[in-house]
Design brief:
Low-confidence stretches: 270-285
Radius of gyration: 30 Å
Subcellular location: Membrane
Keywords: Ion channel, Ion transport, Membrane, Transmembrane, Transmembrane helix, Transport
Order of helices and strands: HHHHHHHHHHH
Membrane topology: Multi-pass membrane protein
Strand content: under 5%
Number of helices: 11
Pfam families: Ion_trans (PF00520)
Protein name: Ion transport domain-containing protein
Number of strands: 0
């Protein structure tokens, strides 16, 4: 798989990063390298296989990588005339989803910091004064009793789950009524911004993207199919991982029996230059056809946008 990705990258470096599936392939390879490295570390360390946190982490990575491989296998659906346009619509919607999620992240961080600051301010009422000894926190249960960072993490978790309706406003209550009221007010403002505005904006963006893709469904599908065919034209004929067997066998065969193409080239020699002219002409035709395909793909992409 590494050799296949390297061959694609060497074929066209600029086009390699334009395909979203290549990013998934690189991520899968990186996870596999991490898995193999950690597995070597566990073998070198030895010990029991039970209650081994490193092996558990490796199995977690295996599960994530299996999910990525199944998703990668779905790329063949883009060649179908029915499922292909729908898959293109999903990819375009995924870009819109990332934009809205970025806005969600800023809103959640902003309100988490504000609510955490409100609740950390009330801790001054729970400290001993006038030379009294003892810890007042033993008798009270403030919202931020476990520290500022854990309070920030707790607030962010509540805000995230509240978007899905899985949080209760009672989770935001604390000792003092003033702090609880201010925090609940910020909580309501957050729900208005996130649930009413951002989610409706997400629905509008997804609807607009789907309408644009369905309008140019045939052009979009032909464009994606031409991209896939142009990408795999110069790759190895046998897919991964079966090329691990075919490539060494082919190299051994050429080493023992010789390459028939090289022998034909040696037999021709310099007696006639017509073959060289024909070879150059065929190479120029392939280059011209490849440039024509690239130009056609660019024109289709401009029309679709």
């Amino acid at each position: 798989m590494i050799l296949s990705e390297y061959q694609q990258y060497q074929g066209s470096q600029s086009k390699y990063f334009k395909d979203m599936w290549n990013y998934l392939d690189v991520l899968t390879l990186v996870i596999y390298i991490v898995i193999v490295t950690l597995r070597i570390v566990t073998v070198a360390q030895g010990g029991e296989a039970y209650h081994n946190s490193l092996l558990v982490f490796i199995n977690h990575l295996y599960g994530v990588n299996t999910m990525f491989l199944v998703m990668r296998f779905s790329s063949v659906l883009s060649l179908n005339a029915v499922v292909g346009p729908l898959q293109l619509a999903l990819f375009r919607m995924f870009v819109d989803l990332l934009i809205i999620l970025l806005q969600f992240a800023f809103v959640i961080v902003a309100f988490s910091l504000a609510i955490t600051k409100v609740y950390t301010a009330e801790m001054s009422y729970l400290t001993p004064i006038h030379n009294h000894t003892g810890d007042a926190r033993r008798y009270h249960h403030p919202y931020c009793k476990e520290g500022v960072f854990k309070c920030l993490s707790k607030t962010s978790t509540i805000l995230i789950w509240s978007v899905f309706g899985l949080a209760d406003k009672k989770d935001m209550n604390s000792e003092t009524s003033s702090s609880s009221n201010v925090a609940l007010f910020l909580y309501v403002v957050f729900l208005v911004l996130s649930v009413i505005m951002l989610i409706n904006m997400l629905v509008a963006l997804l609807t607009n993207t789907y309408d644009n893709v369905t309008t140019n469904a045939e052009v979009e599908w032909k464009f994606s199919r031409a991209v896939v065919e142009n990408q795999y034209r110069n790759l190895h004929t046998i897919v991964v991982p079966f090329n691990l067997l075919s490539v060494p066998v082919a190299l051994c065969y050429f080493k023992l029996e010789g390459n028939p193409r090289e022998e034909e080239a040696k037999n021709v020699g310099n007696s006639t230059k017509i073959f060289t002219v024909i070879a150059c002409f065929r190479f120029s035709l392939n280059a011209i056809s490849r440039n024509m395909v690239d130009h056609f793909l660019c024109q289709l992409k401009k029309r679709s946008t």
